Each structure stands twice: as C-alpha cells, then as structure tokens.
Amino acid sequence: MVRDGSRTAAAAPGLLRLLLAAMLVLSAAPAFATVLVPPGNRHAEQPAVPGGSRHRTEAMKTTYEAKYRKIYHLLRTDGDLRAKIRTTAAQYGIDPLHIVGALVGEHTYNVDAYDRLQTYYVKAFSYLDSSFTFSYRGENVDDFVRRPQFSACSAMHDSYDLWTCRNDVWEAKFRSKVVGGQRFPNNRFSAVFFQPFYAGQTFGLGQLNPLTALEMSDLVHRVSDLPQLSSSNPKQVYKTIMDPDLTLPYVAATLKKAIDAYRTIAGFDISQNPGITATLYNVGDPEARAVALKRENDQRAKNGEEPRLPEENYYGWLVNDKLPELKTLF
Length: 330
Known about the structure:
By secondary structure, this protein is mostly helical. Helices cover 56% and strands 4% of the residues.
C-alpha cells in the first residue's frame, strides 16, 4: 500500500484524533441523511502522480498503461482469483470492484503484478525461511510500545484502535524528535519498525504493509475467522500479506473500514465509488480524513456553502476511469 508520506496529512493532533472521531460518530446521527457520493471522478483530468511512483516505473523500464494491462490480464484470465474476490467481498458486504480497484491501483502505481497467482503463494512461504524482527536499532516494537508515552493506548483492545493509537503516539511523541537522548527518524511508524528489509516495503497481491495488517487483525478474525496476527510473530504477518487466500480479507477489511468511517463520521456513502475507496486504500487513515472532511464541511455550512464531496487522487482517478472495463470482470 503506497502511502507517499501522506498517511497523517489529515490527522488531528495525537490521541485527540480518536476522541474526536468518537464524538463525531455520536453527533452525526441522525440529524442529516447520509449523502451518496455518485460514481465517477470529480476531477476532469487525472491529478498529478507523485514522483516516487514515476521513478519506480521508470526504473522498471515500463509504463503505467503496461502495468495496468498486466494486473488486468491476471484478473481476467484467473477465474479462481475472481471467485476469491467475489466471495471475500460478500463476506465484508462490499462490491468486489472495491477490491479490484485497490489491486489495480497498487499494481499500476507501485509494482508489477506477477504473471501467475501461484507466484504469490511461493513468495509467502519463502518468508518462513527468513529471520527478522519488527525493530529499530535493536529495540523490538513490542518493547518500544511499553514506553510510558504509549500508556493511553493500554485501554484499547481492538487491534485497529490499539495500533492506530500507537501510530498517533509515534507521530506526536517520537517522529523526528529526541527522546531520552535518542533521535528518531522523520518517517512513518510503519516504515521505521515494520519494514525490516527496506523502507517503503509493501508486499503481496494487496501490497499491504505489516502495520495495516496488524490494525485489521481483529476485524478479519471476526469476519473471516482467520488467526489473529501479532507483532511478536513477524513471519506470520509476512506470510499473511503475501498469501492471496489470507491477504484478500485484509484488503476487504481495509476498504470496509474506510466505507464505514466516511458514513458514520463524515456523512458520506462512498460505497458506489471505487475510485474513492481506492484513494483511501492508497493514502490510509480513513477515520482522520473523514474527521477533517466533516470539520471542513461544518465550516462550509456555516458560510452558506455547499459541502465538498470526497475526491479521488491520481490512483483512484485511474480506477474510476477504467471502471467500464473492470466491470466486465464480474
């Protein structure tokens, strides 16, 4: 999942973000009807693609269109994969095109898709032979989150709330700061602790990063009855994000979380617009972004202005633009 450094762009400061989101959930009902975001793009032309994506594509001596054709070909020719997507989408109550949109966006703007689904299974098992930990400069993440700065997170039991809280603490208390005489890097929590091979690392069919998988663990356990993930077992996490049978529920859960956040917090139904859900899959942190949009639209209402609808980024724009072709898959 490519974040391009924008995960926290819309976040409220620190742990107040979670409290604010909860307050907005309570205040949003049911005074105003949920607004359906119509299909299609709000932008007439595709927003600019970040330089990192462009450089990756140039380095691979390919083009966005060629990469799109490759993932589309995999989806079109692999009936088993389409069946898995359809079944998983039904479990989470979403249109399968949301999952397809996330896969298309990731493999168009991040890395090439493999030619065969079997390659993902082989890669998944290869990580079982590796030796690695989720750590930074010798400090394991399980020890790191026991620091007193994370004490407010101890009351949170759902994996999404717990790891989102820990991410917020990292942003507020550690990122680019000196703590106890140690300077911490100006980088995302997921990049510093959860990508032991190289920064910016995401893997598998859904290009998930390990922190996202840990966040979604409890939801996936409840809906799909898959084993819960633990930061103390990084091999299990990597196998999960590489194995298509295991990772698709995590992709679906991430998309479902975004749809629910925008409905309950911002008052928008984005379930009919795969370009918007693909955008949120790309940038992450849907609750914080829903909070920011709700706050902006509250101010617009006070000024007598029309509300601003959620908008697609470059990644979601492509998904909506290709939607007529993608619909033929199902």
